[in-house]
Amino acid sequence: MIQNLYPADELSQVRAQIRRLKLREDELRAGYLSGQLNPVGLDALVEIKMQRRRRFCHDRLPPDILNNPVYWDRSETPAVVVRPKPAQATSTRIRA
């Protein structure tokens, strides 16, 4: 548990932890797909399944449809962006 942090700092740390977990998940996934890892655990079993998905190929549309604004909608969604704070400049003035 993360304690005594400003919410912005906590969110930054949570996102860093998520990145580390996603990297570990990718490593484990690659191991299972290659057959190098045992799929049987104490509490879980890993299965490899094939999934089919349909994908719309918009690049195959004729330009008169693709470039027609009637077929496009715009939307806005809020995004929470975390970035490091700029370093604070230290004052070189000496107080008397």
Average the pLDDT over all residues and give the rounded result.
90
Low-confidence parts: none
Gyration radius, in Å: 25 Å
Strand content: under 5%
SSE order: HH
Provide an overview of this structure.
The protein has 96 residues and is mainly alpha-helical. It has a domain at 7-66. The protein has two helices and no strands. It has helices at residues 7-34, 63-66. The longest helix is centred in the N-terminal third of the chain and has 28 residues, at 7-34. It is flat, with a radius of gyration of 25 Å. The chain starts with 6 loop residues before the first helix and ends in a 30-residue tail after the last helix. The model has no long low-confidence stretch (mean pLDDT 90).
In short:
By secondary structure, the chain is mainly alpha-helical.
Q: How would the blueprint of this fold be written?
A:
Blueprint: H1 7-34, H2 63-66
